[in-house]
């Protein structure tokens, strides 16, 4: 493997499962790729917040979208000074889940002046920052899976047991939370 990261866009799920562009890499190469990407994220001047939902806890998609929208707005209001410190706020989303897109569009538009918000439809191959968001979401999802004892063999292979995961992967990611 030339260099620390293969010359393919980072995408957690295919990487961990050895699918798509990662099919030619063995497990050790994929683990190394994840570790290198983690190191890259650690050095970036970024901040993040995540929200985790279980569809089964909502009676219908409209209630889930309502909850998402409310939580996104609350998080933005809580950190309004941070968002207002920028001339432009760009919302990049691949439109993978319509319900998330709608919640983002409604919430961001309500909290921030429409003149500063720029929306862009993207894919994982377009922006490294979107790949970073994918990585951070993977770490937060892994925590939810570990806590629900739904982590499975893939998480154990890449992150170890829950203690190892929390000490290493989660601690590093959480140092970037707003």
Quickly give the structural class: mainly alpha
Largest sheet: 2 strands, parallel
Task: Return Rg in Å.
Answer: 17 Å
Low-confidence stretches: none
Bin the helical content: 55-70%
From the N-terminal CA to the C-terminal CA, the straight-line distance is: 35 Å
| Number of discrete helical segments | 8
Strand order of the largest sheet: 1-2
Order of helices and strands: HHHHEHEHHH
Shape, principal axes of CA atoms: globular
Mean pLDDT: 89
Classify the beta-strand content into a percent band.
5-15%
What's the total number of strands? 2
Offer a quick outline of the entry.
This protein is mainly alpha-helical. The chain has helices at 12-17, 27-43, 61-78, 80-84, 98-111, 128-147, 152-159, 162-174; strands at 89-93, 117-121. The protein has a two-stranded parallel ribbon.
Write structural notes for this entry:
Strands 1-2 form a two-stranded parallel sheet. Helices cover 57% and strands 6% of the residues. It contains eight helices and two strands, in the order ααααβαβααα. The chain is globular and about 45 Å long. It is mostly helical. β1 (89-93), α5 (98-111) and β2 form a beta-alpha-beta unit.
Topology readout:
Elements: H1 12-17, H2 27-43, H3 61-78, H4 80-84, E1 89-93, H5 98-111, E2 117-121, H6 128-147, H7 152-159, H8 162-174
Helix pairs in contact: 3-5, 6-8
């Amino acid at each position: 493997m030339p260099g620390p990261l293969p010359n393919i866009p980072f995408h957690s799920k295919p990487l961990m499962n050895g699918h798509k562009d990662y099919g030619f890499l063995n497990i050790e190469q994929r683990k190394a790729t994840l570790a290198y990407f983690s190191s890259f994220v650690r050095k970036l001047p970024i901040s993040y917040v995540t929200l985790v939902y279980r569809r089964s806890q909502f009676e219908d998609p409209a209630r889930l979208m309502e909850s998402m929208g409310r939580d996104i707005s609350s998080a933005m209001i809580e950190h309004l000074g941070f968002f207002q410190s920028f001339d432009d706020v760009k919302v990049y989303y691949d439109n993978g889940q319509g319900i998330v897109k709608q919640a983002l569009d409604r919430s961001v538009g309500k909290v921030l002046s429409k003149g500063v918000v720029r929306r862009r439809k993207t894919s994982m191959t377009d922006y490294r920052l979107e790949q970073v968001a994918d990585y951070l979401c993977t770490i937060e999802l892994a925590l939810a899976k570990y806590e629900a004892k739904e982590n499975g063999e893939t998480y154990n292979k890449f992150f170890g047991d829950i203690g190892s995961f929390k000490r290493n992967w989660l601690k590093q990611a959480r140092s970037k939370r707003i």
